[in-house]
Amino acid sequence: MRQPCGQPPHPPPATWQHGGVTAATHSSLFPQVPESADAVLDGLDPEQREVATALHGPVCVLAGAGTGKTRAITHRIAYGVRAGILQPASVLAVTFTNRAAGEMRGRLRQLGAGGVQARTFHSAALRQLQYFWPKAVGGEMPRLLERKIQLVAEAAARCRIRLDRNELRDVTGEIEWAKVTQTVPADYPAAVAKSLRDAPRDPAEISQVYAMYEQLKRDRSVIDFEDVLLLTVGILQDRHDIADHVRRQYQHFVVDEYQDVSPLQQRLLDLWLGDRESLCVVGDASQTIYSFTGATPDHLLNFRTRHPGATVVKLVRDYRSTPQVVHLANGLLGQARGRAAEHRLELISQREPGPEPSYVEYADEPAEAEGTARRIRELIDAGVPAGEIAVLYRINAQSEVYEQALADADVPYQLRGAERFFERQEVREAGIALRGAARAGGNDALLDDVEDLPSQVRAVLSTKGWTTEPPAGSGAVRDRWESLAALVRLAEDFVRARPQATLADLVAELDERAAAQHAPTVQGVTLASLHSAKGLEWDAVFLVGLTEGMMPITYAKTDEQVEEERRLLYVGVTRARLHLSLSWALSRAPGGRASRRPTRFLNGLRPGSAAAGPRTAGGAGGVERGGGRRKRRGPVLCRVCGKTLTDAGEMKLMRCEDCPSDMDEALYERLREWRSGQAKELGQPAYCVFTDKTLMAIAEAVPGTEAELAGISGVGGRKLDRFGADVLAICAGEEPGEVDEED
Questions:
Q1: Best CA proximity match to 312, nearest among 7, 49, 60
Q2: 455-501 per-position pLDDT tens digit
Q3: pLDDT at 320
Q4: DSSP 683-719
Q5: Cα(477)–Cα(426) distance, integer angstroms
Q6: What are the residues whose beta carbons fall under 8 Å from the beta carbon of 122, sequence distance 6 or more?
Q7: Cβ distance 657 to 647 under 8 Å?
Q8: SS3 for 639?
Q9: Is residue 468 classed exposed, middle or buried when 0-12, 13-18 and 19+ CB atoms within 10 A define those classes?
Q10: How deeply is 306 buried, as exposed, middle or buried, from its count of CB atoms within 10 A (0-12, 13-18, 19+)?
C-alpha cells in the first residue's frame, strides 16, 4: 500500500542502515530502469527519501556539498511520474547550465521519466517567447544577439567613450548585471553605490553606454539573452491569457542551485507559478559565490517566510568526501559570519576515513609550484589517475607557474575556464611589444634613461596596461594586469639568475617557455580557478596560493565580500574526495622577504594556528615545511665557472647558460628525433618524455651507465625504467632497442 504523499514509505528490505543506500555522487553509466515507482526509492537515505516522496506543496531542500541533491530531486520527479501523481509534460525542472540540465535529463531517462522538461532559465524562457511572440506582439520576433560586445563597443564610441578590449568585457558584464537586477540605465550609478560594487569605469559613463546600447538594440530590432527573460516577464505580466496558458502546461516546478537565482529569474519563476505552490527548490547558501553576476541567496533564505507551510528537508550526509575533508569544511563554515552563515549545514561524512588534509608552507611561489608538482607526481605514481587530480587557485594569472612546474615534472595537464598563459591576448601583445623593443635596442625612445632589464620590461608593458599598483575591483582589467604583472615578475626573477641578461635574452626565454606549452592538450591534471571548479569533484585537490591578499582577495573590502571569499574556499575544499592539500608561500620570489601570512580562514584549523590574533610559528603541530625543493637543490654550482646557480634550467645543465657548452650537437639532434617518435607513440607532448634542457644535459654528459644517466636532473626512476635503455643506446651510437650480441 502506497504511503500518503509527503510521508516516507517503509524502507525496502535492503535498508540504508544495512548497505542498501547507494553512493550519492557516483552511479553506473548504464543502470537498469527501476521496475516500479517504489523501486525508484531503493538506495536513498532517509532524508533523500523524504525529498522524493514530498510531492505536494512548497518544498525547500537545503543540500550540502556532496550530499546527492541532484539524485534526490531527480528521484523525486521520477517517483511522482512513475506513481502516476505527476504528468511528465507538466513538470519543468530548471537549473543554471546546459551541462547540468543535460545531466538531469539523462538521469530522469534512466529512472523512466524521460518526458520531463529539464532546461536552463534562458532556454525555457526563449521557447515560450518564440511560441507566444506572434500572439502577444505580432510579426517576427527580433533576432537574438549572440554576442553583445560589438554593440557595446559601438555604443561606447557613439558616447565618445574609449574602451579597450578588456574594458569592453567588463562594461558588458556591468550591463548584464544591471539587467538581471532589473536596474534601468538611469538608476545604474545609484544601484552601484548601494551595492558597494566596484565598477570598472565611472558609473555615469557606464550608464551612458548602457542607455545607448539599449537604443541601438531597439533601432536594429535585436535582443540579447537578458532581454529574453525581461520580455518573457513582460508578456506574462501583461497578458493574463498567455500566463494562464503557461500555467496550464506547467503545474510542477523544480529549481536547482536556488542560491544562484537573480531577482529577474525569481520574477519569472513567480509568474510561472501564479498563485500555486507546487514548487521544490534546492540549494545551499554556503555555496553562494556568484554575487558579482547578480546571484543572491536571499530567495533561498526567505523561502520559509514566503511559504510558511513549506516542507523543509536538510541533506547533510556527505557521500563525496572523507571525514577528514568534511571536518575541515565544517570548520571553515563554523567561523563564518552573516546571514548565510546562520543557515549553514553541518555535514556528516559517509565515507571511510582517509588521510588528513596536508598544510604546507613554502618559502616562495616557485617552491610551492614545484612542491605541488612533485606531490602530484607521487600520487600518479601511486595509481591516482591524472584526470582525478586538480590544482585550484584564486585567479587565472596564477596558472603559469603551475603549468611550468607540471611540465618540468612531466605531468600532463589541462586548463579549465582559462586560456593557457602564453595564449592570452594580453600576453601575446606584450610579447610582440617586448620583441619589438629588443629589436630596436637603443633606438627605442621608450627605453631612454632605463638601464636594468626589469625597468625596461616595466616601461614596455606600461604601454599595454601595466601599472605599479593593481587596478581596483575584479574582472578583465584586473586579470589583464595580473598577466602583465606575472611577466614583470618573470623578468625580475630572470635577471636575478642572470644579471647580465638583455631584453633579447628575456624574449628568447619567453619564446622557449611558450613553445613548451603549445603542445596539444592531453587528458591530465586539471588547472582551474575556484569559481570554475564549482559543481566538479576530484580524488585529489591541491588548493594553492592561500595567502592574505589572495584569499581573501585584496579587493574584498566589505564583511559580505570577505564572507563570499570564505565560501569560495569552502567550495574548493569540498571538491576533494580523498586527498586534500592546502599550501601557501611566505614570499613571492626565491630569497625574498618572508612577509606573507596564510589566509585568515585557516586560523584555528591548520595545526599550530590560533583561532584569532597573529599567526603562530609555522611548522608546528603538523604544518609541513615545503623544504624538499631547497634540500634537493642545495647550493648548485656551475661546473664551468663555479658560480651558484638559481635558474631551474641552468641547474639541469649544471652550468650557466652563458658558459661554454661541450654538448654533442649530433647526439642532441638524435635524442630530439627519438623523443618526437616516443611522444607521438604515447600520444603526449614531447616534454612529457624529456624536456629540452634534460636532453641538452644528456648530450653534454653522454652517460654510459644507468647510474650516470640517473644522476642527470630530470631523469627520475620512472623515466629511467621506461626510457633508460633507449637513451643509453643512442648515447653509445646504437639504434634504440638494439641488443648487443655479448648481452
A1: 60
A2: 888 888 988 888 887 776 556 676 678 788 888 888 887 888 788 88
A3: 95
A4: TS-GGGT--HHHHHHHHHH---SHHHHHTSTT--HHH
A5: 10
A6: 225, 228, 229
A7: yes
A8: coil
A9: exposed
A10: exposed
CA dist 318 and 315 (Å) reads: 8
**Measured at the alpha carbon of residue 144, what is the angle toward residues 140 and 149, in degrees to the nearest 5?**
145
* Helix residue ranges, H only, 353-448: 365-381, 399-408, 425-440
Say how far apart CA 431 and CA 394 lie, in whole Å.
Answer: 25
- Residue of 455, 459, 454 lying closest to 495 (CA atoms): 454
pLDDT higher than 90, residue 538: yes
Query: Could you report the per-residue pLDDT of 127-166, keeping only the tens digit for each?
Result: 999 999 998 888 889 998 878 888 999 999 999 998 887 7
CA within 13 Å, CB half, 150: 4
State pLDDT tens for residues 598-628: 999 999 898 877 765 433 333 333 677 775 4
Query: Look-up: residue for cell 568534511?
Result: 326
Question: In terms of Cα–Cα distance, which of 176, 187, 341 is closest to 262?
Answer: 176
Give the total residue count for the chain: 743
Taking residues 364-383, report their average pLDDT. 92
Instruction: List the helix and strand counts (H, then E) for the chain.
Output: 29, 17
What's at 273, amino acid-wise? Answer: L
124 vs 104: CA distance, rounded Å: 15
Strand, helix or coil for residue 280: strand
Distance of CA 78 to the CA centre of its chain: 32
Cell of 606: 591548520
CA distances from 653 to 473, 657, 675, 700 (A): 43, 8, 18, 8
